[in-house]
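Give me the fold.
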Amino acid sequence: MSIDLGILFIAGTLWERHCCARSAEDLRLVRGIRTERDRGFFEAIGFRPGSAFAAMAGLSEFVGGALLLLGLFTPLGAAAVLATMIVAAVSVHLKSGFFATGNGIEVTFLYGSTALALTFFGGGAFSLDALLAVKFLTERYVAFGVIGVAIVSAGVVLAMRARPQDQPTTT
C-alpha cells in the first residue's frame, strides 16, 4: 500500500510538471499566441519548422504527464516524457554540464529517470491500469520495449535537427 502511494505521489509530481505547468502554455500555443516565440527558440536550436517541433514537444509532455497521473498505459506516458527529456537534455542542456544552476542536464535527468522508474513500477494500485486490469504493461519485456522505443524516437527527432544557427559575433 505504501509503495502504491509513493508511485501515485511520483506520478502526480511528474504530472504537475509535465501537464499542469505546460497546460496553460500549450493552450496559448494552440491559439497561436506563443507560436512565434517558440518557433524562434526551436529553430535557433536546430529544429525546423520550429512551430511544429514546439507543438510536438508540448503535446508529448502534456499527454505523457496526463497518462502518468491517471496511471493509464503508464509505460507509454513514461516513454513520452522520457523521449522529450532526452531530446531536451541533448539539444539544450548537455553543453552546460550537469548542474541545473548552470542550465545543465540535472532537471531533465531527474524527470527522465523518474519516468524510467515508472516504466518498471507501473501505475500502482491507484491507477486506471490496475482498475482496468491491464496487466501486460507490467511485464519486463514491455518496459524494455517501451524504453527502446523512447530512445529510438528521441534519436530520430535529434537526427532531424539541423545545425543550430550560429550566433553573430561582435568584434
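Residues 167-171 have pLDDT under 50 and may be disordered.
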